[in-house]
Specification:
The protein is of the alpha/beta class. It contains 13 helices and 22 strands. It has a seven-stranded mixed beta sheet. It binds zinc ion (2 copies).
Length: about 400
């Protein structure tokens, strides 16, 4: 029997993912997130479902779970670490919503309900979705990120966000043989520079900034990116500080060491990190060699204070560590040399550079991954330039589907 699917969001865009699948005997939802833009964007309301599977806890995959579990008495299957990070992000998004004056689609009480609905799965374990058996595999994107393999008459693999190369934090994902592949395509049409070269250039730049008497401010997403950067800084001689939500994420990662590539190295990195715990420490950190802090795209968080401090200091630098979404403060800084501080646009005179520490597979890696899975049909999702990858996959003989949000499709 073919599967019928629909994207509630995140089909033809990077963000707010929700994949509805009608499986034999169950209506299943994979991920349900929000795009944390200004204003936030939500997926379409989810019709009643029987079970949800969460691939990983970035807000664009998990941010709407409390809305869902407040309306459906269902379980949310995920790894333990995704549950803990997810709860942290959901609570935080209520605080941010309140601070920025956006109505939140759920309350703290709803988050508490959501917490009780999680049903833990380990890599290699199986779960049930109607008549289908579901197997969890590591997606290599952040610790605990999961690909789900649905076994019925035909096998379907849902990747969530994937990375196929090893990073310092997690080992890369391996292909899984399947008939249908529902794959992310964030980096369709784009490849990453070699990671070792990026790491070398990044460390060299920090050294240069320090030698001329400046501080390097490293805006980093709290979940995944911060820890990757700390693992890189661990072996340097720099005095590095961490401020913002990354501290809480560190603590959670250390509680679930089985999901990181080397628990020992992460422990060493965290113990070498100076954590900013009060105002006094914050003023010390501002004078240090390096400050790693949130938010990664300069949209709020302690990074704004640090950036304000060095804004007119040409010896210092802001070193961005990831993709800056259109409309973000970080994108504005790169494109115009100005950024927003509490609603006021100011010129930034320190050095600004961007480094690619992406946790997503690049174009060629996605192509190789798909070939390794050798599916008959491929649905590309979570991308705003899917056609480029689709073209390359079709040229290799795959049947490729590019459904838009709200469109029904069958595989
Ligand atoms: Zn992600
Ligand atoms: Zn994502």
């Amino acid at each position: 029997m073919p599967l019928e699917g629909e994207f509630l969001g995140g089909g033809d865009e990077v963000g707010r993912l929700g994949i509805l699948l009608k499986c034999p005997g169950a209506r299943v939802l994979f991920d349900y997130g929000i795009t944390a833009s200004d204003p936030p964007q939500y997926p379409a309301p989810c019709p009643p479902v029987d079970i949800m599977f969460l691939t990983h806890s970035h807000l664009d995959h998990c941010g709407m779970i409390p809305w869902l579990t407040a309306r459906n008495d269902i379980n949310v299957v995920s790894t333990s670490i995704s549950r803990e990070i997810g709860i942290l992000l959901m609570d935080d998004s209520i605080k941010i919503g309140a601070a920025e004056g956006y109505p939140e689609p759920y309350t703290s009480a709803d988050v508490k309900i959501a917490r009780r609905k999680f049903d833990e799965i380990q890599f290699g374990d199986t779960s049930q979705a109607g008549k289908m058996t579901v197997i969890a595999h590591s997606a290599g994107h952040i610790p605990g990120a999961t690909m789900y393999e649905l076994q019925g008459k035909r096998t379907t693999l849902i990747t969530g966000d994937i990375h196929t190369l090893d990073t310092r934090l997690v080992a890369g994902a391996k292909p899984v043989k399947c008939d249908n592949l529902i794959m992310e395509s964030t980096y369709s049409g784009r490849n990453h520079p070699a990671r070792l070269k990026t790491e070398y250039a990044f460390l060299k730049k920090i050294e240069e900034v320090n030698q001329r008497g400046g501080t390097a401010i490293i805006p980093s997403f709290a979940v995944g990116r911060t820890q990757e950067i700390l693992l890189l800084l661990k072996d340097s001689r720099f005095d590095f500080w961490l401020d913002g939500m990354g501290k809480k994420v560190n603590a959670i990662y250390l509680r679930y060491p089985e999901f990181v590539r080397s628990a020992k190295r992460l422990r060493q990195a965290v113990s070498r990190t100076h954590e900013v715990r009060n105002v006094h420490a914050r003023s010390r950190a501002a004078q240090a060699d390096v400050v790693v802090t949130t938010s990664g795209m300069l949209d709020g968080g302690p990074v704004l204070g640090y950036a304000e401090n060095i804004r007119n200091d040409p010896k210092s630098a802001i070193l961005l560590t990831g993709y800056q979404v259109e409309g973000s403060n970080g994108r504005k800084l790169i494109e115009t040399g100005y950024m927003e501080f509490q609603g006021v646009s100011e010129k930034v005179n320190c050095e600004v550079l961007k480094f690619d520490f992406s946790a997503h597979a690049g174009h060629d890696e996605l192509l190789a991954f798909a070939k390794g899975c050798s599916p008959e049909k491929i649905v590309l999702m979570h991308g705003d330039q899917r056609e480029i990858l689709a073209g390359d996959l079709k040229a290799q003989g795959f049947e490729v589907h590019l459904p838009k949000n709200g469109e029904k499709w069958t595989i």
